[in-house]
Amino acid sequence: MRDLKRKDRLLEAAGDTYGKTLALQTLDVCDVESVKQCVDSVKDRRVDVLINNAGIGLLGPLESIKMEDMKKVFDTNFFGAVRVIKEVMPDMKRRRAGHIIVMSSVMGLQGTRQCA
Ligand SMILES: NC(=O)c1ccc[n+]([C@@H]2O[C@H](COP(=O)([O-])OP(=O)(O)OC[C@H]3O[C@@H](n4cnc5c(N)ncnc54)[C@H](OP(=O)(O)O)[C@@H]3O)[C@@H](O)[C@H]2O)c1
């Protein structure tokens, strides 16, 4: 997560897995240094399964949405996933093992009224 100060709800949901099978690290997928530091913090940089879940939504009439807000969506949802994949893919290829899961949206397949 981007800000570990906001971890309380997550820890509550995690129960006694925290510290055993669950660890938390800071990660901002919009910041390539943050991505690198997060992957470096994993033992031997070994990521067996990458789940690209980070994402933000933006709904509304196209003409009323600022370009900078639209760019933030692409920087997070698309380039954010690309940054993390670029960081783990070379190691996965070297090991010839690994899985990458990317969260998407039904809105990538079908449109909805008043949304571009
Ligand atoms: N809920 C829906 O109806 C819906 C529909 C279609 C697609 N999706 C997609 O499904 C995924 C999960 O959605 P959700 O509804 O569970 O959303 P959510 O509760 O808002 O969770 C999104 C997560 O993305 C993280 N995130 C956002 N920007 C980030 C960044 N720059 N770097 C790292 N983490 C970042 C947030 O972490 P922080 O704790 O740091 O804020 C948050 O934990 C997203 O990719 C979303 O686009 C959701």
UniProtKB/TrEMBL annotation:
One of its GO terms (cellular component) is cytosol. Keywords: Oxidoreductase. SUPFAM superfamilies: NAD(P)-binding Rossmann-fold domains. Pfam families: adh_short. GO terms for molecular function: all-trans-retinol dehydrogenase (NAD+) activity. GO terms for biological process: retinol metabolic process. Belongs to the short-chain dehydrogenases/reductases (SDR) family. This is Retinol dehydrogenase 8. It comes from Synaphobranchus kaupii. The lineage of its organism: Eukaryota, Metazoa, Chordata, Craniata, Vertebrata.
